[in-house]
Amino acid sequence: MKKWGLVLIIAAFMTILAACGGDEEADAGESSDSGDAFVIKAGHATTTEHFGHKSFEKFKELVEENSDGKITVEIYPNSQLGGEREMIEAVQLGNLTMAAPSSAPLTAFSPGMYLWDIPYLFTDAAQAHKALDGEVGQEVLDQLSEVGIKGLGYWENGFRHLFNNNVAVSSMEDMNGLKMRTLESQQQIKAWNATGANSTPIAFNELYTALQQGTVDAAEGPLALTYAQKFQEVTEYLTLTGHMYSPWPVIFNQGFYDSLPADLQTVVEDAVIEARDYNRELSAEDEGASLELLTGEGLELVEISDEEKANFQEAMEVVYPEIKELAGAELFDLLMEELGR
After folding, report:
1. DSSP H helical ranges for 43-185
2. 3-state secondary structure of 75
3. Torsion-angle region of residue 304: left (phi > 0), alpha (psi -120 to 50) or beta?
4. Under 8 Å between Cβ of 12 and 92
């Protein structure tokens, strides 16, 4: 209740601010012939080598070209502007225009985002894209408008896998007592604890040091991101659990978006979608390449059977009822219907 109370207070504050921006808001929906210039300040958590940064660069290229220079995009990579939770809050308050964080920290702002915390929800990327780009995915994005955030689409981070510096995990028994870093999500903590791990949330920009110093033994994430952040330097084993697909919801400050003339809103929306398609192509290419790089630099690849994966899935299903309640039964059931489950 405290969390949602704070969110509602902030949302009310944002509404007051929007009301005070009368002249600027009056221009929304009109043509950009007035010559007004706009700056999109975009932040993200990945390194400049990762395809996530390249996705932002693609977005910048498209927006600046198609707006005829009326919009300039500034990109701040590698958590320069804080962790993902801090960047989401900055977008909400208007201190940052744009971000593409993991969906887990967005659950504090939009209950529908809990759906993307469901372990073993998707079997492959194509199935994930169809759900995210469909009715349920759009409804989850639309919920963000209630707290001063505009959701414009989903970029891709990839399927997540387990890496650690303690034990070669080939079965769930190997998880017992493993100090596990999770995303900032109570449901993911609960899901990993159900496998026998001792889980704790740590901000992404603090994870390398936490692994290096032994604060945690293990973490999980997509292969390209694992390599880009050099986690292979501080871990020894990689298990391809594929336990979760991780989207990057693309979010904007609602007030900024509303202040754009209609033609420039279209430029931004189109650029998000074109950059999304580019991002997903890069993600698919980088997954295989990153696996070779990770193992080539000494990370030991551990085999896990389909039977053991099924054991992980069964254990992690402990969070399904809670996520259904948090996200909303109607939305949860609609997603499961879309997936044929």
Report:
1. 51-66, 84-93, 125-132, 135-143
2. strand
3. beta
4. no
The three-point CA angle 282-249-49 to 5° equals: 35
Alpha carbon 112 to chain centroid, angstroms: 13
Task: Please give the sequence-ordered ranges of beta strands (E in DSSP) within 197-256, or none if there are none.
Answer: 198-201, 218-221, 237-253
193: which 2 tokens? 């604890």
Using alpha carbons only, give the angle 162, 277, 221 rounded to the nearest 5 degrees. 10
Could you identify the residue written with the tokens 């201190």? 95
Provide, for the chain, the percentages of residues in helix, strand and coil under a 3-state DSSP scheme, each rounded to the nearest 5. 55, 20, 25
What pairs with residue 180 in β-bridges?
199, 218
Token output for 130 = 């169809």
The answer to whether the beta carbons of residues 87 and 99 sit under 8 Å apart is: yes
The torsion region of residue 109 among left (phi > 0), alpha (psi -120 to 50) and beta comes to alpha
Angle at which helix 186-193 crosses helix 306-316, to 10 degrees, equals 130
Distance CA 140, CA 142 (A): 5
Q: Phi-psi category of 119—alpha, beta or left, where left has phi over 0 and alpha has psi -120 to 50? A: beta
Q: To which residue do tokens 């498209």 refer?
A: 62
Tokens of 249: 């919801």
Model confidence pLDDT, tens digit, residues 115-129: 999 999 999 999 999
- What is the tens place of the pLDDT at every residue in 200-256? 999 888 999 999 999 999 999 999 989 989 999 999 999 999 999 999 999 999 999
